[in-house]
Amino acid sequence: MMSPHDKDIVLQELDHDLDEETLFIVSQTFKALSDPTRIRILHFLCSDEHSVNDIAQHLNLSQSTVSHQLRFIKNLRIVKFRREGTTLYYSKDDDHIMNLLKQAIDHAAHN
Predict the structure, then answer these.
(1) Which of 30, 31, 77, 86 shows a CA-CA span of 20 to 30 A to 42?
(2) What is the structure's pLDDT at 12?
(3) Does a structural domain hold residue 14?
(4) Predicted local distance difference test score (pLDDT) of residue 110
(5) Three-class SS of residue 85?
(6) Among residues 103, 73, 79, which one has the least CA distance to residue 92?
(7) Assigned domain for 72 exists
(8) Full pLDDT tens readout for the chain, 111 residues
(9) Quick one: DSSP state of residue 87?
């Protein structure tokens, strides 16, 4: 249970206005999580890194579609990549976002 002091701290943190940059980043994050294809890709990347080809094959998507979606979520720093020769391997870059995704999936599965 939260102490009265802890509640005051939480209220103080929620009491300030959000700046424009924060609002933009949050809205883009939710935009990233609003697309079923990106959700599938992120869910697949939760446990391990995978190449674009692996992602495309596993999710039955074209490489072009996967690359396009990865570019969007990479620009938000939700995923990162490493290059090995000509192959790009993608992995999660932000546990906060992956936790949001997991919570949303758990929520959807909750009856």
Answers:
(1) 86
(2) 58
(3) no
(4) 84
(5) coil
(6) 79
(7) yes
(8) 667 666 656 555 665 788 999 999 999 999 999 999 999 999 999 989 999 999 999 999 999 999 999 999 999 999 999 999 999 999 999 999 999 999 999 999 986
(9) E
How much is the pTM?
Answer: 0.80
CA–CA gap between residue 44 and residue 2 (Å, rounded): 36
The CATH number linked to 91 is 1.10.10.10
**Contacts from 12-18 at CB under 8 Å and sequence distance 24+?**
none
- DSSP states of 14-81: HTSPPPHHHHHHHHHHHHHTT-HHHHHHHHHHTTS-EEHHHHHHHHT--HHHHHHHHHHHHHTTSEEE
Give the number of domains in the chain: 1
Q: Which two tokens stand for residue 18?
A: 């959000």
CA 99-3-26 angle, to 5 degrees, is 30
Asked whether residue 48 is domain-assigned, the answer is yes
pLDDT of residue 16: 72
Q: Which domain holds residue 64?
A: 22-106
- CA–CA separation, 62 vs 95, rounded Å? 27
